[in-house]
Amino acid sequence: MSLLQVRKVTKRFGGLTAVDDVSFDVFEGTIKALIGPNGAGKSTLFNALTGFDRPDSGSVVFAGAELVGRRPRDTVRAGVARTFQNTQLFDELTAGENVMVGRQARQRRGFTAALLRLPSALAEDRDARAEAGRLLRLIGIEEWVDVPAADLPAGIRRLVEIARALATGPRLLLLDEPAAGLNATESRELVQTLYRVRDAGITVVIVEHHMGLVMEVSDEIVVLDRGRKIAEGPPRMIQKDPAVIAAYLGEGGDDDD
Amino acid sequence: MDELLQFLIAGLKNGSIYALVALGFTIVFAATGAINFAQGEFFMLGGMLGVFFAGLGLPLPMAAVAAIAATAAIGAVFELLAVRPIKGGDPLRIIMVTIGGSVLLRQMALHLFGPDELPLDPFTEGPSLKLLGAAVERQTLWIWALTGLAVVALALLYRRTTFGRAMRATSIQRDAARLVGVNARAMVTASFALAAALGAVAGLAVAPLTQASFHVGAGMGVKGFAAAILGGLGSPVAAVGGGLLLGLLESLTAGYIDPLYKDAVALVVLLVVLFVRPQGLFGGSGRVKM
Amino acid sequence: MGGRTLRALAPLAAVAVVALLPLVVTDRFLLKVFTFAGINALVVVGLALLFGHAGQVSLGHAAFVGLGAYASAYCTVRLGWPWPVGFAVAGALAALGGLVLAMPSLRLKGHYLAMATLGFGELMALTFQEAEPVTGGVDGFGGIPFPSLGPLEVGDAAALYWLVWAVVGVAVLAAYNVTSLRPGRAMRALHGSVPGAQASGVDVVGVKVRTFVVSALLAGLAGALYAGVVGFISPSVFTLTASVTFLAMAVLGGTGSLAGPLLAAVLLTLVQYIDALIPGLPQEASQTIQSYREDIYGLAIVLVVIFAPRGIAGLWSRRGGRGEAA
Prior knowledge:
The complex is a heterotrimer of chains A (257), B (290) and C (326). Chain B has helices spanning 2-32, 39-55, 60-83, 91-113, 138-160, 162-172, 174-179, 184-210, 217-231, 236-256, 262-276; strands at residues 129-131, 134-136. Chain B is mostly helical and 290 residues long. Chain B has one domain. Chain B is globular, with a radius of gyration of 18 Å. Helices cover 75% and strands 1% of the residues of chain C. In chain C, β1 (148-149) and β2 (152-153) form a beta hairpin. Chain C has a domain at 30-240. With 326 residues, chain C is mainly alpha-helical. Chain A binds chain C through residues 50-52, 71-73, 76-77, 81-84, 88-94, 97, 100-102, 104-107, 109-111, 114-117, 121-122, 124-125, 128, 143-144, 146-149, 151, 161, 164-165, 167-168, and chain C through 174, 177-178, 181-186, 188-189, 191-193, 195-204, 210, 255-256, 318-319, 322, 325-326.
């Protein structure tokens, strides 16, 4: 049984069909990549999977439950975390606090408990702090913990956002262009991080333009072009697929390694 | 029947004023994506400066032109000094700066012209005219004429001139406008000047009936915004429709229910529209079109 | 190291100064000014949550203060209820007003909410003026008794001062608890990025509503204290001008902070009475200062928003001490 089943998802904006009848499966414990030229509908699909946008038709079943129609918050709590193409960090909070906010998806103590400084609220706070520290170490950026997000370099911002997504305790992690803005060393570290995340039992879907990285980490690739799925399969197959070469590599491509 | 006609005339008179102020909100919103909380102060300045220039001995038409030009200049300077320095054009900070700025404009008028209500002569002297048995003050005709003129001029400006097309491009997509060579910053400044001029026209036209005073800006700002949001904060046509509708609602409420509730009408309309239908009556998607 | 010790001691020192002030300041008028500073501070603590943390603008807080003031006056004078009950009703009614305004406002973006609060504030101001049987209309509502706790009447200047600042103290403590824990991070997250907050599982709607309600509640309590301290209330007090004053205090105080807005509330209140605080000021000079009072608030907002968006709090914020933290 696959962890995520995307079935016939369609999303239109006015006259434009951004995602057109797309179906695929994501199996537990794997890394799947979603690639395609700009405007292929990758980010729109991410939004449809995470409750930020409601598809016009189709279904998204995660671990047996329908996700279409749920709000973003409920999707996160169900176990689907995401990052954004334009990182959405909280600039006035430190890197550590940003990650702690992600932990809120798993927390129960509310406003009143905090107001009265109940031991349960304090315990949760300590747990969130410890978890944030653990995740920043996992990703290898623990030295940035106390720096306000506004002052972080672009590459570190992406990694903090990944840590924040992990803090929500997901079974499925959707990463929107995680390597954008990373230098060569940081990209290598990102690959290691992705493996560590997968080895921790978290399934990963990435949208990425960095072809070297995609071919290296992904178990399977889905290729989108102008909203439609044109190919799906392991990296080796995708590289040889004539339709993909025509649609994707033909436009100049950016497979820099 | 005569009574109804009288109420309709009063409603369309005030509604025209609201329409002009609402147009100012719409223009600045289109250019910046923010609400200019100082819009009502431009209305106030129009009346006050009209009184001031008339007091210098200028004939009324010249005083009016001078007041409108001066208010437009103040609008442009306001944008240059307060709004432009905000990096990235964050709408929240623009709003805050216009809130602070509106206080400063009002206080400036207080310090320069004093706290009293100041009279302005009607544009043409003479008794009220009769229209189907109802009385129409001559100044009301001026208000309608000036509102009509302002709306036509604005439409021509937008449709027929390079400047107007640049304004529209900016309102649709600021980055795209920059790509095709429109100076978006200049367009924002121009939008404040234009909004200020429209506010000034309204303030001038109504001053002979209500007198000019330094403290009327905030109240008119709320009403003008209520009109703009009633229309949908989208197009100039919607702003005018919202203004006239608000004016009619007010005068009918005052006439048939209780004059006491007249000022509450705009506030209730504002809250109801914001809560129930923020895209307004005439707005489709809530998108800004010019 | 020294900075950290100072930071730990500063709140204690502040509490000591505030608590001991009436022993040093014996002038009754001056003490009253500091009491008003406390009332303003109470409103501004609420705004520090709403504006400073959650990034929502309110131009209607004077209405919540008014709601609290009239509610407590009505309860104590007309209904003859004990003061603490009136005080509680004042807070509850203002909180309810906040809830009514916040619920629909949730769909509104920042600028729409600001307009909605402005419209609400103006509507309430009109109501205070016109609902004569309840509020006394433009002539005001007089004969409001001093606050009393059981048989104990809080009547002299120092006692009123202590009562007001005790309430401020409790409010600051509660606000500190909220802001230093999960809800505070959620508020600031909301300010930073709504999509980011949603993707982190933050209850965006709930956080906004709760912040708005708490903020209105504190304003209502401040109103009840104001009515008790002054003994007379009228619609002219609870206007847009007052709302702008509160907002100016919150803006000057800075974002993400409680100490900054508290300090700003006290400073701007003192500015408000500066003519009375300088001994021997000729009446003309005093009048000039009075007429320029609102310029100061307007200017404060404009200058802070343009040049120092982090306000007073930015002066000692984390960013200043980053070298030590990182």
